[in-house]
Specification:
Length: about 230
């Protein structure tokens, strides 16, 4: 049975500074890179056939560390970022068809990007809670349908994440491929909400630690058979 491996990126510099990040393209901190390296060792006995990440560097960096720190994960293959002609910075990268026996494809997509936090981006979370109240900020951060000012709700994020999950990620799983998804707290929450059959009332309680792999064993019909968190 194929494995779906979900991992929230390692700690970013703005995670460390307790700032709302959203779509701001902040890299990993030193701790975040260490978290990704530890995750790689935990995944040593797993094999990955294809990887998906967001367009944000902290997710791509986490994926690359996981796939290169322990070569066993790739089965000796070289991870290769795949770019299509819909990439705004396209330079003919898609002209290379690749060598499936030797290479592991990494696909990037905006549909796995973090939830857009709008006017909260760049603000300190504690200072924002002091200004607007802790309950209001918790609603903006964790509720299913409430949007932060100028931003996305988790429901909005789900509307772009889940079609991609069903069309691309689940298709690989049904074909028997082991899939690694390195993404963000909220894009992953939307996926886990469906996999774990969580209600809009239950999902606010879902917390995802940075750099901790979550393994779902999936059958070829797309049904979850087992879930393991590699703390």
């Amino acid at each position: 049975m194929p494995d779906l491996i979900l991992i929230r990126h390692g700690q970013s510099l703005w995670n460390a500074a307790n700032k709302f990040t959203g779509w701001v393209d902040v890299p990993l901190s030193e701790q975040g890179r260490a978290e990704a390296m530890v995750a790689a060792t935990k995944l040593r006995n797993f094999r990955v056939d294809v990887c998906f990440t967001s367009l944000l560097f902290r997710a791509m960096e986490t994926a690359v560390i996981c796939l290169t720190e322990c070569s066993e994960i790739c089965g000796g293959k070289t991870p290769i970022f795949k770019h299509g002609d819909d990439d705004p910075n396209w330079h003919g990268w898609d002209h290379y068809d690749g060598e499936p026996v030797q290479e592991l494809p990494i696909f990037t997509t905006f549909q796995l990007d973090e939830r857009y936090y709008g006017k909260l981006q760049g603000l300190n979370k504690q200072e924002t809670a002091e200004k607007f109240g802790a309950d209001q900020v918790q609603l903006w951060r964790r509720s299913f349908s409430v949007r932060p000012p100028g931003g996305e709700s988790l429901e909005d994020t789900m509307h772009r994440t889940m079609p991609f999950f069903h069309d691309r990620i689940l298709a690989h799983l049904k074909a028997g491929d082991n899939v690694l998804v390195a993404a963000h707290g909220n894009s992953l929450r939307s996926i886990i909400m469906e996999l774990d059959h969580l209600t809009p009332e239950e999902v606010p309680l879902l917390e995802l630690a940075t750099g901790v792999p979550i393994i779902y064993r999936i059958d070829t019909a797309g049904k979850v058979l087992q879930k393991v968190i590699l703390n």
